[in-house]
Design brief:
- This protein is of the alpha+beta class.
- Helices cover 29% and strands 35% of the residues.
- The protein has 6 helices and 15 strands.
- It has a 7-stranded antiparallel sheet. Strands 3, 6, 9, 10, 12 and 13 form a 6-stranded antiparallel sheet that branches. A two-stranded antiparallel ribbon has the order 8-14.
- The longest helix is centred in the middle third of the chain and has 24 residues, at 78-101.
- The protein is globular, with a radius of gyration of 17 Å.
- 35% of the residues are buried.
């Protein structure tokens, strides 16, 4: 069965209502297996093929952490394009609901991803943002947000391309929520090979006594103690 068809079927099988509830409650939602081990391996193999990528960032040079990542160039690999396109409409519904809760009068996100990308390109954001991340023992990623211009989609996706405990130890996915007038709250999350985690790009709405308010989140990766960790990051907006 074609990769695009398999991914679409797996995306359709997700309980998106429950995912929306988890995202609203905690800012992230573990999702089932999107990619097969074979597709995961194929993506890892691409990391050494420079022609597939537009940019290579060594984290230590910018004090981002220790490791490196590469942004794909267009056209994206079939599996990456399919996953980005198939998940987007479900997340756009959640994003529009969040904007409504926060009283954001910005133009609603369209349910077609190409239409949303056209909006990005009109604003000068034309560079592909899906990326592969690579860490060796001792590697980590500092807390950050993936914002590449004035237009930013409020949700994104990370998919594990290997298996924690087999391919690496440590290297958990970390989310830190900055609660106004309170201590920050951290979540440490793991997922199996091919499984995804949807999480907040910048902020999420939280119910308060005077109505919903914004709570900011940043994400990163804890230190890898052993082995090699590869992940796929899906960002839905493009970059300048």
């Amino acid at each position: 069965m074609p990769t695009t068809t398999v991914i679409q079927e797996r995306v359709n099988a997700v309980d998106w209502e429950n995912a929306a509830k988890q995202l609203s409650e905690s800012g992230y939602a573990p999702i089932g297996a999107f990619l097969s081990p074979q597709v995961c391996h194929a993506l890892v193999e691409l990391f050494s093929q420079e022609k597939c990528f537009r940019s290579h960032v060594v984290m230590e040079r910018y004090r981002f952490g220790k490791g490196d990542y590469k942004y794909f160039r267009y056209p994206l690999p079939e599996s990456v394009e399919s996953l980005r396109t198939a998940t987007y409409p479900h997340l756009a519904k959640i994003a529009n609901d969040w904007n409504s809760q926060l009283g954001n009068e910005a133009k609603p996100f369209p349910f077609d991803h190409q239409e949303f990308l056209a909006r990005c390109h009109k604003a000068g954001q034309k560079q592909a943002t899906p990326l592969l991340l690579h860490y060796e023992a001792g590697g980590y990623n500092c807390l950050h947000q993936d914002l590449y211009g004035d237009i930013a989609f409020p949700l994104q996706l990370v998919v594990m391309l290997g298996q924690q405990g087999r391919d690496w130890e440590g290297g958990e996915f970390v989310l830190v929520e900055n609660v106004p007038r309170a201590q920050s709250r951290a979540e440490v999350i793991t997922a199996d090979q091919g499984h995804g985690i949807i999480f907040t790009t910048r902020y999420r709405p939280v119910k308060g006594s005077r109505g919903p308010y914004r709570v900011s989140l940043r994400h990163g990766v804890s230190r890898i103690r052993r082995g090699t960790r590869y992940t796929l990051g899906i960002i839905y907006h493009d970059a300048k």
